[in-house]
Amino acid sequence: MGDGMTAPAMVLLGHGSRDADGVDEYWALADTVKNSAPDLRIGCGFVELAEPGVDEAIDQLVADGAHEVVVVPLVLLAAGHLKNDGPAAMARARQRHPTVHFRLARDLGIEPTVLAIAEERIRDAAGDADPEKLGVALIGRGSSDPDACSDLWKVGRLLSDKRGLGTIEPGFVSVARPNVAEAMERCRLLGATTIVVSPFFLFTGMLVPRIHQQAGEWAAKHPEITVRGGAHLGPDPRLARLVLERYREALHGDVRMNCDLCTYRVQLPGYEDKVGLPISLTPHGDEPARGKRKARRAIRTPAPAPTVEVRRGRFMPSTTASDEQPAIEIRGVSFDYPDGTSALSTVDLTVHRGERVALLGPNGAGKTSLVLQLNGVLTPSAGEVLISGTAVGPRTLKEVRRKVGVVFQDPDDQLFTPTVGRDVAFGPAHLGLKGDELAARVTEALSYVGLADLADRPPHRLSLGQRRRAAVATVLAMHPEVLVLDEPSSNLDPAARREFADLVKRLGMTTLLVTHDLPYALELCQRAVVLDHGQVVADGPIREILADAGFMSAHRLELPAGFNPLGG
């Protein structure tokens, strides 16, 4: 991010709310942004309804010496408040501080990270519902601004494309139509027997409970439909990196575009797998145009009178105040092997909850030595390792090893019993789980990786991709907080690579990806940490690191021939 004393300052602009929980969520995300960019001067202010105001936040930064200020709105979709109040705040600031340069960044917008979090919230609420009979009422705030309303339809379209989320019908809680009940009715008429009501809101406030109240009123009139309330996005830690991207974008320009040689230069929502791919020279893509839609019919299944319950996923990162505690803290860690070989030298690393970080480096760089410090397999010669605030040591090994799940490069190292189900049950059973509780834990983990129907199958009868997912299930059954993946794409065919990447994204867990597969790391992670000779030699946006040809060559990192991390 640069030197905080010379880099432009940033103001995190919130709308403000009468609801204390909504304001607290703003501060939780603001704290995560500050922790992600400790050298950057960051102020906080609101448009209305909460203190301090945006003018006060700007004035304080200028008083502290800022000569350039970037205002980043913590807003999902730009509507009247951002379009009017944002520029108005800039105009007032320029009048008060004519020698200071001000920039206004764009809203968080329709972006892969936002869509991924929204998808997780929907899946968490849907649970085991049949996707063929699932309807999603995607509910936005509602606005007289046509751009904001149409953007919700774009979000719904992208969420419904190849994600297995059933029928998605947008609606609004106020001002615009269709309203909550009308969106739910559309889902019912299209054959949904389970409806998830998903608020497309960044923070809670007065309107999110109103959405669930209106959904409950509709549900009471339709006892044949199962209605489940989804959670809003909330201060998910992954959004912090998006906020910093908006900051950089305001300074250096928006690079969302295509070029003559590739489909897309950067990740675009719903098309993340096309970054840097050659464009098709045929009118309809690489395959003949085809269009066939499976017929749908309305089916109703009797069900108890529903209640609207907001559900949160088992493997979704927490968005409580505990997010202030990093998932991984490595403080000045050095490690020497018994023969005197130095593997790590004064390594410092912090990984926040929900982050996916790629750990890169040549062979012998110290990656494995570092990873084995996380669960106490190796003990530092100096320094300390903390997992969610718990120091790794002899007295905490049991707790730490439950919190940190490691998936080995070879899944056969983790699958050793006669059946997949017994492998998954092994860890929870040693925690003391028995009977129905143990069976439920096994079913939950296998369902999440798509192997629920293979619990009785011997591991050697699974494909490599299935065995790798089964290995993940053995870890998920322990309900860990941190997931470590060692060369997860090794020896997988393209379809299995894609399936495993989709699984990792869907988990939404704090993930450390140890790999030599640089394109795979780029697909899954926004941040990379590079180790060489036991030291951290780079820590930053993965795309920028991979694009630095001189740095890559100096540290024996090599991209596949023809692969351009910038997508050009």
TrEMBL record:
GO molecular function: ATP binding; ATP hydrolysis activity; ATPase-coupled transmembrane transporter activity; lyase activity; metal ion binding
InterPro entries: AAA+_ATPase, ABC_transporter-like_ATP-bd, ABC_transporter-like_CS, ABC_transpr_CbiO/EcfA_su, CbiX-like, ECF_ABC_transporter_ATP-bd, P-loop_NTPase
GO cellular component, one term: ATP-binding cassette (ABC) transporter complex
Chief place of localization: membrane
Start and end residues of each ABC transporter domain: 328-558
Keywords: ATP-binding, Cell membrane, Lyase, Membrane, Metal-binding, Nucleotide-binding, Translocase, Transport
UniProt xrefs under SMART domains: AAA
UniProt-annotated location(s): Cell membrane
Entries under Pfam families matching the protein: ABC_tran, CbiX
PROSITE patterns registered for this protein in UniProt: ABC_TRANSPORTER_1, ABC_TRANSPORTER_2
Superkingdom per UniProt: Bacteria
Homology family: Belongs to the ABC transporter superfamily.
Protein name as annotated: Cobalt/nickel transport system ATP-binding protein
